Amino acid sequence: MMQGSHKGVSLQARLLVRALSVLPLKRMFRDTDRLRAAMERQGRRRAPFPACSLRRVAEVSLHGDPAHPLVRLVPRASGPARELFYLHGGAHAFEINGLHWRFITKLIRHGGFTVSVPLFPLIPRASGAEISAHVRDSYLRLRKLAPGMPISIVGDSAGAGLALGLALDPRNSEDEMPSALVLVSPWLDLELADADHVAIAPSDPLLDLPGLRWTAQYFAGDRPLHDPAVSPINGELSRVPPALIITGSRDLLSPDARRLAALAGESGRKAELLDRAGMVHNWPFLPIPEAQAAVEEIVRFLTENKGEGAVQSTRQKPAFT
Q1: CATH number at residue 24
Q2: In whole angstroms, how far apart are CA 67 and each of 102, 156, 255, 273?
Q3: What is the rounded CA–CA span in Å between residue 275 and residue 10?
Q4: Is the pTM of this model over 0.90?
Q5: Nearest in space to 165 (alpha carbons), one of 181, 143, 150
């Protein structure tokens, strides 16, 4: 697969990607023993709650299960506003972290959104079915906290897979459907069956296939990996809400993003694909100019799709230069 030219990639991005290449994350996802040890270390810590910097931007309240609460962040500047339900990534195994909270802070500051974040259980202590059930329960709880309000769902990586699965859940009534989706570096095919996954893996400085396949099997449990409840890319896409899908050429999971955009188009649904040459997994989280442009695109998309329903079109966003 052609990876595309890196022309137009900022110097900050090029330097940061080089720095990421020497971090241990790639080695962890290549070696399942390292990955297991990291998961065990995390299991002895509590999930990090919003930092003081975020609390200066938003009023924080906790709802539901004290062990796995729904964290609700209401902008101090404007009070309750347009609702986002945020699902964090981490290969279904790792807690929300500082990068996630900083990204959420940007969404609040630049979009004025009220953001609700479920701190759901993770593998291996919970099964994939239990994780998905907790996510759905948290979403329905938010529906009660914000009755009648349109809700958009934003997710990254494995959380983007949970987001798509939640949106496609056949139990959803019309009133329960999200108004829009934003999927950042989505992991949607836990089979990792696309040949492009293998082709891109060497150029991804963060992720690798052995660790992802290991956590995927944990998440699936007794279910086959191709089950739509496990790999939502195989679900019924005829009701998928308007979606903004963000990926990059050095993201091992980029085949999932491109495939979803194509399938959504074939189903006559509205989808925008922001596929940035030279960018890595979850690049909108990074301290680079391209990330700020991505946040602006997300705010624009969510502002334009407030619940008016799906539109019969699919288009690809031009790469930022």
Answers
A1: 3.40.50.1820
A2: 22, 22, 35, 36
A3: 16
A4: yes
A5: 181
